[in-house]
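User: Can you predict the 3D structure for this chain?
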Amino acid sequence: MNPQPSGMTWNLLLLTWLVALISTLSALFIGEVMGQAPCVLCWFQRAFMFPLTVILAIACYRSDFTVWRYALPLTVIGAALAFVHTLLYAGLIPQPIQPCTATGPSCSGAGMTLFGVVPLPALALFAFIIIAILLIIIRRRTTP
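Assistant: Here is the predicted structure, written as structure tokens:
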């Protein structure tokens, strides 16, 4: 017998979707409105965040609390990419294995910060971690 999800669980699912939605809209704003071209790692992170927005929206609509089964793998992979990107930004990854080319956008330039303080790769990592935590909480609330 599965535990019945409460209204609080649905609110957590909605919050999870909102985090993904805000992340997606922010990435689109930075790229399309501000005109900042994403680097290679940003594209890969987008490939994992953008589908989460759609998947979690459908899960909210259907009250599908098993969404963690297919959203959590995307989140973990996206978080791993964001972690590598954050290490790259911090200068902890050696130069020879940096994925950005000399002709493409820089992963570690000054334009990769929010308000000149918070690195965008760290924000992406934070968003993926928050989504993962919320999905795990949803799983624990709905799985016996």
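Helices lie at 7-33, 40-62, 68-90, 120-142. The chain has one domain: 7-142.
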